[in-house]
TrEMBL record, chain A:
<comment type="similarity">
    <text>Belongs to the CcmC/CycZ/HelC family.</text>
</comment>
<dbReference type="InterPro" id="IPR003557">
    <property type="entry name" value="Cyt_c_biogenesis_CcmC"/>
</dbReference>
<feature type="transmembrane region" description="Helical">
    <location>
        <begin position="202"/>
        <end position="223"/>
    </location>
</feature>
<keyword id="KW-0812">Transmembrane</keyword>
<keyword id="KW-0201">Cytochrome c-type biogenesis</keyword>
<comment type="function">
    <text>Required for the export of heme to the periplasm for the biogenesis of c-type cytochromes.</text>
</comment>
<dbReference type="InterPro" id="IPR045062">
    <property type="entry name" value="Cyt_c_biogenesis_CcsA/CcmC"/>
</dbReference>
<keyword id="KW-0997">Cell inner membrane</keyword>
<dbReference type="InterPro" id="IPR002541">
    <property type="entry name" value="Cyt_c_assembly"/>
</dbReference>
Automatic annotation (TrEMBL), chain B:
<keyword id="KW-1133">Transmembrane helix</keyword>
<dbReference type="InterPro" id="IPR004329">
    <property type="entry name" value="CcmE"/>
</dbReference>
<comment type="function">
    <text>Heme chaperone required for the biogenesis of c-type cytochromes. Transiently binds heme delivered by CcmC and transfers the heme to apo-cytochromes in a process facilitated by CcmF and CcmH.</text>
</comment>
<dbReference type="Pfam" id="PF03100">
    <property type="entry name" value="CcmE"/>
</dbReference>
<keyword id="KW-0472">Membrane</keyword>
<keyword id="KW-0479">Metal-binding</keyword>
<keyword id="KW-0812">Transmembrane</keyword>
<protein>
    <recommendedName>
        <fullName>Cytochrome c-type biogenesis protein CcmE</fullName>
    </recommendedName>
</protein>
<feature type="topological domain" description="Extracellular">
    <location>
        <begin position="30"/>
        <end position="162"/>
    </location>
</feature>
Amino acid sequence: MNWTWFHKLGSPKWFYQISGRWLPWLAVAAVLLIAVGLVWGLAFAPPDYQQGNSFRIIYIHVPAAFLAQSIYVMLAVAGLVGLVWKMKLADVALQQAAPFGAWMTFIALLTGAIWGKPTWGTYWVWDARLTSMLILLFLYFGVIALGNAITNRDSAAKACAVLAIVGVVNIPIIKYSVEWWNTLHQPATFSVVAKPAMPFEMWMPLLIMVLGFYCLFGAVLLLRMRLEVLKREARSSWAQAEIRAQLEKTP
Amino acid sequence: MNPVRKKRLYIVLAILAGVGIAVALALSALQQNINLFYTPTQIATGEAPQDTRIRAGGLVEEGSVKRSGNSLDTDFVVTDGAQRVTIRYSGILPDLFREGQGIVAMGKLDSQNVLIADEVLAKHDENYMPPEVMQALEKSGMKQQHDAAKAAQDSAKQGYAQ
């Protein structure tokens, strides 16, 4: 197998050039998908027969929860790459993705609480799904705090990578909590193998929103990583040339 | 892959496997405590403790809801298909509360195994549909089939959860 692309990815300069090309596409896709998904989901999708209009919070809640878990898996993969291949860019990705993941977890918890009050009759209940999601938020806080608390960059990268990898055990617990235990949270509406338990005009805007959130995450991550790469490579000639070129462009 | 990287990869995977096994053991030991509620079968077989606050969950039996005329007191029966538990509650029920709906009630069991609840939460299921579809289902008599299939599914799932 040819691993050149993988090793190339480790080069900050190459990453900076290629990400500059992807960024506008991701940003445009994110704006379009989220705009279409929001309008379709909030205004045109039919209300639910039991919950009425309050079910529409699903169009924020589910994409945020998807992202919260996916980003954590990404942190663990970045941590693994950083530990095993000593790739500096993996650490940049890990550090820069963590705050976005924490925000997504927070949004999922918050929208869930807002929806829970009218639907279940309570904002919060200590069931397995909600509790494991709260633990995910604390894991994100842990990764962010650890990265900021250790001044030596290499030790910080190692500590964050280990925490990210160990914490990934929580992800299958979140996913299967609704099946392993009695919870108040309902089981998943969507699965890879079965038809969704929802009609097309309800799940299509949701799918668009999920894709839009992924694109938004991609765009924000690239933007943050590019800035961090420039900061870390500030002494190299390519980075200085790039900064000079940017400065000349903006009078 | 060069040997140093391979070794590091194995160390990381070994740590992950170790933590995974530890968490799995801890969770299986805590199995009963993580469940949010006891099913009516568990209450009937005496698995649920007396004289302490517990949660009971299941489907509200059709035709079992009795509201008092001059107060907020409501009596209803919760079932998992095999056993039934009577629940007495005084207060405002959540919007989703209705016959056939899954609910979770928190309170104490009295001597006749009636749960005196001080909190009733409605449990939503994973199915969503527009109101027109539901009306059409009701008209064509499909709803009974749908509900029966769902109840069977739910009780099978609850049996599995134990």
